[in-house]
Amino acid sequence: MKCELAHEREMKKLLLQSRDEWKLTVAELKKRYDNAMHDDYEWKIRYETQVDINKQFERQIQQLAEKLRNQKANIKNKTDLDNMAETDLKRMISQLTREKGNLDSQLKDFEWRLDQEAKAFIRADEKRKMILLDISQAKNVIKETERQCDARLFNMRKKHYKRLRERFKVTLPPLDRESNKRVVVAEGGYAKQAQMK
pTM of the prediction? Predict the structure, then answer.
């Protein structure tokens, strides 16, 4: 009987140790999840900032296009392009070409940066989803381990309870799984119930 009690204690110790290890795993996964959420938030802010910058550049492009239209209208009003000197026309064309090239270059640069930020955001979001899945799986394993632990301990107590009834020839109340009670035999040979901790 002492051997069985020792075995029961050893099993309980092993199961509790296993449960504690799973709890540590869940804590670590939660920590990784929180870090991923922080990274996710950072990427979200960077993405929103980039979108705002792009909107500003789009407004700037529209303003410059409007300015160009106004300048063309002013030129037509003041003088006809045919009447302008060739050097003035070349200077105006080169200036407008440079402005257009600069704006095109800025637009391409910001489109590329936005694309890179979007890809990084997607990667961070996928990582966050994987961590959430890991946490969920770890929680399920912990619940299953605890359920198995409770079932094993209950079955061990049930066998022990049965042996006590047979050995001491006493009538004991049935073992209750929900309240997690066990029978303790006192030195006088009678039985009492004690709440399991």
Answer: 0.43
